[in-house]
Design a protein that fits this description.
alpha/beta; Rossmann fold; GMP Synthetase, Chain A, domain 3; three-stranded mixed beta sheet; 14 helices; 11 strands; globular
Length: 340
């Protein structure tokens, strides 16, 4: 039995009623509004997952088609336009050795993993907006809007040059907007040579080493998918789109309240000391939204729920439930005592 709660117009209304609804004992709950259309995408996804469980994935997928939006972002001259052209199989975007050729967002469509994907190539992040002209500033603004309006972001970095401040800036915008992301390390042919691109064992070693390097540079991407690519040689682009599809699906995943609490809630008191261990009481955790996956933690006092506890819960949810590449949002709510 699936419970559908109507007349819930916003996520804030959802937070207000979720505790009361949770007491009804339903394992699967959806919150929707006919007026604002809030929650209907999640409801459709829930019905689809139920049908897959009952009928099988192949039967459902044969009669189901979806589409989503992907933004390709990164600093100037990392090969974003070359990647887009390679994915499209045509020269849709002008490519030039001169940095900053793409000054506005450009859209096109491809079919990938049985989905229609709208791809947006964006203007690159510069060192400073003060060095950019009026047209370039407009392009950067359009880039940030493309990120906000996307379902998945591909962050392109230059394999030859490693991590830069602009790469961190791009990642920061993605994380601020809670967007699923994949990191594409481009120009890998120039790093190892064309011949080694086809050596799977060698590439696995390089991949592991680079992922370890990125994890030490960016704490927030420890579990995110990283794909070594060469847009020029069209190397690993299928793998890139496979990971894009994977994080899109993960962003809409739901975890049951019972499983969440068995895996997460009881970890906190045993791993913290001081005020957290003695004063904080976590009653339960429940997921209230997808895309981004949003979880409410009900506690005795919000003031005891410190930032380190929030970060710990985020990390464990990401690790245990395979949300790598999908930023998780944590909300805290003080549980109201029942009136006698």
């Amino acid at each position: 039995v699936k419970l559908v709660v109507t007349k819930v117009d916003t996520i804030h209304q959802r937070i207000l009623v979720v505790d009361e609804v949770y007491r009804l004992g339903f394992k699967s709950m959806f919150f929707v509004s006919s007026k604002t259309k809030y929650g209907f995408e999640e409801l459709v996804d829930g019905i689809r997952m139920f049908l897959i469980e009952e009928l099988g994935e192949q039967i459902v997928n044969n009669s189901y088609s979806e589409s989503f939006k992907v933004a390709i972002v990164g600093r100037i001259n990392v090969g974003k336009s070359t990647i887009m052209n390679a994915l499209l199989g045509k020269d849709r975007v002008m490519v030039d050795d001169e940095p900053g050729t793409t000054r506005d967002s450009i859209d096109d469509f491809i079919e990938s993993q049985d989905s229609i994907v709208r791809i947006t190539d964006t203007a690159g992040f510069r060192r400073s907006l003060f060095k950019a002209g009026l047209i370039e500033r407009f392009g950067i603004e359009r880039t940030e809007n493309a990120i906000k309006n996307s379902d998945v972001v591909v962050i392109v970095i230059d394999g030859k040059e490693g991590i830069t401040k602009q790469d961190k800036k791009a990642l920061g915008v993605v994380l601020e907007n809670y967007k699923p992301f994949v990191i594409a390390v481009n120009k890998w042919d120039l790093v190892v040579g064309i011949d080694k691109l086809r050596d799977e064992k060698e590439m696995e070693k390089y991949h592991s080493a680079f992922v370890d390097f990125l994890s030490r540079s960016f704490e927030n991407i420890r579990y995110a998918p990283v794909v070594l690519v060469s847009a020029k040689e069209k190397y690993n682009l299928d793998k890139l789109m496979e990971e894009v599809s994977n994080v899109f699906q993960k962003s809409r995943k739901r975890i049951s309240t019972g499983l969440l609490n068995r895996k997460i809630r009881d970890l906190v008191p045993h791993l913290f000391t001081g005020e957290v261990a003695t004063k904080l009481r976590i009653y339960y955790i429940t997921q209230i939204d997808v895309n981004p996956p949003t979880f409410v933690v009900f506690v005795n006092k919000e003031e005891f729920f410190k930032k380190n506890v929030e970060n710990f819960i985020k990390k464990k949810i990401t690790e245990i439930f395979d949300f790598g590449g999908v930023p998780v949002k944590i909300l805290v709510k003080q549980k109201e005592r029942r009136k006698k």
